[in-house]
Amino acid sequence: MWFRNLRLYRLSREWDMDAARLAQQIATQPLKPCGSQDMVSRGWVYPRFDGEFVHAVNRCWLLALGVEQKLLPASVVREATQERAAKIEAEQGRKVGRKELRDMREHVAQELMPRAFTRRRTTWGWIDPIHGWLVLDAGSDAKAEEFIEVLSRALPGLPLRPLHTQISPTAAMTDWLAAAEAPAGFSIDQDLELRSAAQANATIRYAHHALEGGEIRTHIGSGKIATKLGMTWADRVSFVLTEKLLIKRLAFLDIIREQAENAENADEQFDLDFTLMSGEVARLLDDLLPALGGEAPSE
Prior knowledge:
By secondary structure, the chain is an alpha+beta fold. The protein has eight helices and twelve strands. The chain has three domains: about 5-70 and about 120-160; about 75-115, no CATH class; about 170-290, no CATH class. Helix 2 (about 75-90) crosses helix 3 and helix 5 crosses helix 6.
């Protein structure tokens, strides 16, 4: 259980919830198979195979949003529509009009939908009720938004807000590079994206490239700002910080992985991985927030 892409949200310290009550509330919205005319279905699934919707370990809660989606390629619908239109033209001796073709395409899609293949995926969320975190392992805005939407339906009035800091990640990363000095507890790696403040599409990307030379400072001096920066925390976790305060390409280094090799079975391994992952991320955030000036006050 190792998250790869972190999206960070704050829960109110006054949020009164326990694992059992949370499980009871989200159990009202389990994942159901897509109906014959449904393209997508969203709902909660068990993080493990124990019949519990909330997997609680070491005062942290793991949730799993399941999404079932039908795959109906546009090319299949288009080909079937063209065949049907060609048959009408041959039998009735007339050209199928644009509106009729559009309506035909919709009917074909409805007819084919029950035979479409389905795909399932899972988006993971971790709640730390003690420190007020909701952390999602979501690589896109759309996946994060659907998780929050389904969670909010199960928990009306959920006191949740995205994390904001006093110093923007862009300003902080640019300052670290200009000074050639990472904040305490961190080191700068070899991945970087710079963007021109004057020309939004003017971007320079470095991959596996030393960033301590004068070339980077020259770019910054000319007005470019850092929008992505590879970093390592405490020689334990590497990641890429983005301008939107996303933590991407999270990787737990060998010193952490070695601690996860002592489990005796799959269930114990799952819990050990989750405990190590959540603990390391919590400590990383404890150091990252001060480096960004601390949290911005909620409005």
